[in-house]
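wait is this the right file?? whatever heres the structure
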């Protein structure tokens, strides 16, 4: 149920109530095509190794040695436990540092597979003024929208930085909101494990 809709003239958000989604989302996450697409996305994004030290280039050898089959079996039987993230600090352009959590390549593939299943469910409810980490949207589009708003005569812009959002978000509330649409308890359990990791 979409009970809390932001107010304001610029908010364009779907508020229609939809039935909860089916209980087979976990199977969709584990489908071979979905996992293959997730791997391709993770591979294209590159990135550093997690706590296990495995790089993107080492993952295919690791997976073909039977480890990936073990992971998918553990996922299917509810015995999989995500690895902790590797904490690093990166320099911010304006000075100071920002903490970054780097999951293992294996966990990145699983997280991407989950995102590919959940994004079509949740994305339609997001504001049209939201551009970050959304399909077919990017920072250049956000800049263009701001330029168009300035041309309309508006004189103020607000920059919102979600710094440390995931360190401070109320996980119980987040899981409750996810549970409003996602009824697959196995998937919800796995997402909760990732939040703890």
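ok assuming it is, sequence goes like this
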């Amino acid at each position: 149920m979409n009970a809390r809709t932001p107010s304001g003239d610029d908010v364009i958000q779907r508020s229609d109530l939809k039935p909860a989604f089916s209980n087979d989302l976990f199977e969709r996450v584990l489908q071979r095509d979905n996992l293959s697409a997730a791997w391709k996305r993770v591979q294209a994004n590159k990135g550093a190794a997690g706590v296990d030290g495995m790089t993107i280039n080492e993952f295919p050898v690791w997976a073909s040695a039977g480890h990936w089959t073990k992971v998918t079996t553990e996922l299917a039987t509810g015995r999989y436990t995500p690895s902790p993230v590797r904490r690093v600090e990166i320099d911010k352009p304006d000075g100071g540092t920002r903490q970054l959590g780097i999951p293992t390549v294996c966990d990145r593939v699983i997280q991407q597979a989950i995102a590919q299943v959940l994004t079509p469910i949740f994305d339609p409810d997001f504001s049209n003024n939201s551009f970050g980490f959304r399909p077919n949207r990017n920072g250049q589009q956000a800049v263009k929208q701001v330029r168009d708003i300035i041309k309309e005569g508006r004189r103020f812009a607000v920059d919102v930085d979600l710094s440390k959002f995931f360190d401070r978000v109320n996980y119980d509330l987040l899981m409750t909101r996810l549970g409003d649409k996602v009824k697959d308890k196995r998937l919800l359990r796995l997402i909760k494990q990732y939040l703890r990791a």
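Residues 38 and 54 are 17 Å apart (CA to CA). so i think its the right one actually
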